[in-house]
# Entry
Amino acid sequence: MGGLGLITRTMDFPESLIVSVSGIRGRVGVDLTTEVVSGFAAAFGTFVRDKGWGDHVAIARDSRPSGPEFVNAATAALQAAGCRVSDLGLVPTPTVLLAIEELGLAGGIVVTASHNPKEWNALKLASPDGAFLTPEQGTDFLAGLRSATPPAKIEPGQAADAPGAVDRHIERVIGLDLVDPASIAGRGFKVVLDCARGAGGVILPSLLERLGVEVVGIELEPDGHFTREPEPIPANMRELCERVPQENADLGMAVDPDVDRLALVDGSGRAIGEDYTLALAAKLVLSHRPGPVVANLSTSQIVETVCREAGAEYHQSPVGEAHVAAAMRAAGAVVGGEGNGGVILPALHLTRDAPLAVAMILQLLTEMQANLDAIVADYPQFVIVKNRFPRGRIELDRLAGELESAFPGAVTDRRDGLHLRWPGRQMWLHCRASGTEPILRVIAEGPQEREAEVRELVDGAGAIVARAGD
# Structure
């Protein structure tokens, strides 16, 4: 059942640590310790040098309190492996990836657990392309994991300065041919911005100021002391939803702690769903240039609807930024991303980028001379229902077979867990293992008028998953 398993590890990692082609993720002090971080970083430094990518790498972090300690441990390990290290500091993940590409570095490590709760952190690995390791590169790295101690003949690396990453990121975004800062400023937008005390506070207020937007801030302090669950989903955005109408703002914007996902709230205070971020970004791009669009298998059909409207090819990939980026390269996509609010624009770089998405959404609203709620109202309304279950020791291939038998008549896709689709009913079901938590996710979508059927689909699949875990 492709995509549901975890990678076999050859280093002495705790069994509860989540290890994948993207890096490692765990609970601070429980399964993610400085010793684990050091071993993993040393192995990555050796991998980068062995690949012939060079020896100058970047390291950076989000705002989590455990970040500085892990950055120090990883930096020392990388230097011991013979790498020169540029510490970019507390910056968004897309800022790091853009800097790697611009500066011609050999790769990098981002210390961030993205949307996970405060007790988590992670190391995510980047290549010289300024993107996370491809599935092939990640598999190659994991297959070669060995002793974290480099050979004695390696000359230790040194620190190397690389300032100005945030400023360069802002300049690249506002310099895109899709973005007209003067026109956006002319709309006189007022935006309520929720950064969840993550790294968004170091870039988004400045970007919005450059775009002439009035900002009302919520949790802008990048100190990592989350006062709510940091994932930008409607259940965690209650204050933002309340503040938008209170402030008479045009819309609300929320990002996750590492600033690669953007969620939107309309002027009435309604969270419209993360999938609309990619859908509206695709609408903007396709109005300027034709081409294919790529999204993952858990993305709402609203993105496909926008593509159909524009006559654009629509492709789907397994969940995960690396998979989406690989599919975008293969398809020659003009835009893509994930339904969790992540937008990828190849004209900038092949990674999810919330500052980019912020500018693109404001540009679309400016060009259409319309409010967010009016644009959303013009499209069919879909409902997505989600559930989650402990990963445990479920036999995943057997589970896939049981699910497929229980829900006949569907188009089956096993590239990422099990994805079932009923085109005539505009419904789909996706069951897969999370790459960020030790859980199985069950997600289904259908037209809003079929919400009861969608919930029955999730409940039925959930019952099968629950039995498999007993």
